[in-house]
Amino acid sequence: MIKKTIWMLTACLLQASVTTDAWAQNAKQVQYRSAIEHMTNLPEPPEGFKWAVNPDFTDEFEGGTLNAEKWYDKSPYWTNGRSPATFKAYNVSVENGCLRIKNSRLDPPEGNDGEPGDKYHLAGGAVASKSDQAWYGYYETRMKASPTPMSSTFWLKNLPKRIRYVDETGKLVIEEHRQELDILETMGKPTRHPDWGRQFNSNTHYGLNVEEGRQRVPNLSVSGPKDDHIAIEDTAKDFHTYGLWWVDPNTLHFYYEGEFRFTINPGTMYNRLPFARPMYMHLVTETYSWEPSLPTDEMLTDDPKNSTHYDWVRSYVLVRK
């Protein structure tokens, strides 16, 4: 009788374990079902490879809260923003199947890190991935910009990496290298460049600091073409998809609504393989120093026009067949 009871308990526990594992597996399939189905829209993979979902940078933004396992609601990599707008976690929310980053006014104004001051009188938001391992692969979002003179962006970046070497004179040289890959920078209501909100604005930036004397050489920046290849629909009037295929350190293909538009080959003056390091992901609204206009109170109090909306972010890696 005791043996039979032990056997029945063991069988129940095994069944429960199998059921739990199956439920967890099914939950993952449901969570990434849309991203998996979307793989048919991706560029043709190289022979012998196939696309697979990169879960660390994929989110459908369902439910009522930001997934804290994947995202920071306020970036730890860029904490204060560019004056006159800083970043606030309270401007970040998930609602109606979208990530929403709201723009607002600060009253009273603030200094860095929320301290008293008058440096910032506006606030946007900066959502950042917790993983910093976005590397070669395909990265795409479906988003709608806010119709304001604050930006709506989707980009990758890494922290500076220190390199030490001794040159031919015997001098120790210490350099810091960093990279930024702007998949989309846009603005729903620009004034200085009125067409900017109808352009697929993408850039690569390679930054270099030389420690001796804190010398900073200019960023090595390469942008997308300034021709019809970047002409797109108004980014604030509807949702559109913007994608990047990061092929290798020297080749970046950009896609609009799933269609190839152009390639950027980053500059190699500072590094022969300029984009060979992993990055984190940023979804940010901010102010630009070159844009003279700022959002009005009418814009900032008009929900949901005061916000950038991200329907989803989906990311993929190439794996062997």
TrEMBL record:
A Pfam family hit: Glyco_hydro_16
Chain ranges of the GH16 domain: 37-321
CDD domains: GH16_beta_agarase
InterPro entries (UniProt xref): Beta-glucanase-like, Beta_agarase, ConA-like_dom_sf
GO molecular function list: beta-agarase activity
The enzyme's E.C. designation: 3.2.1.178
Gene3D superfamilies: 2.60.120.200
UniProt keywords, alphabetically: Glycosidase, Hydrolase, Signal
Tagged with keyword Signal: yes
This protein's record includes keyword Signal: yes
Signal peptide: 1-24
PROSITE patterns with a match to the protein in the record: GH16_2 (PS51762)
Family membership: Belongs to the glycosyl hydrolase 16 family.
Name under which the protein is recorded: Beta-porphyranase B
